[in-house]
Design brief:
The chain is 21% helix and 37% strand. It is α+β, with helices and mostly antiparallel strands and 84 residues long. The longest helix is centred in the first third of the chain and has 9 residues, at 8-16.
Length: 84
C-alpha cells in the first residue's frame, strides 16, 4: 500500500463528495492513467474508473515529490467518463 497523507481540503472533499477511502487508495495504487499537472510540475494526476460506482472516473491530484505523498484534492471527473 502507498504511504500518503491528506490535506485538510482532501479530507473535506472525501466527506462532501462521499468518496470512499478504498476508492482513493485504489486510484493511488493502481491508476489507469497518470498525468502531469498543466500548471504545477510538482503535482501529478492519478486517474481510474471506479467500477462499483457506475464506472465513474476518480481523479486524485497528489504531490509525489514528498514523502509521504500528499493528496491535494480528488473528484469525479465527468469530462473523461467512459474515455479511459
Amino acid at each position: 500500500m502507498i504511504n500518503y497523507e491528506l490535506t485538510q481540503h482532501a479530507r473535506d472533499v472525501l466527506v462532501k463528495r462521499k468518496i470512499k477511502i478504498t476508492w482513493l487508495e485504489q486510484v493511488l495504487t493502481f491508476p489507469q492513467r497518470v498525468e502531469t499537472d498543466a500548471t504545477d510540475p510538482m503535482l501529478e494526476h492519478r486517474i481510474a474508473e471506479i467500477s462499483e460506482y457506475e464506472n465513474r472516473v476518480l481523479r486524485v491530484i497528489i504531490n509525489s515529490h514528498i514523502n509521504p505523498i500528499r493528496v491535494v484534492t480528488l473528484f469525479f471527473d465527468r469530462k473523461i467518463r467512459g474515455k479511459l
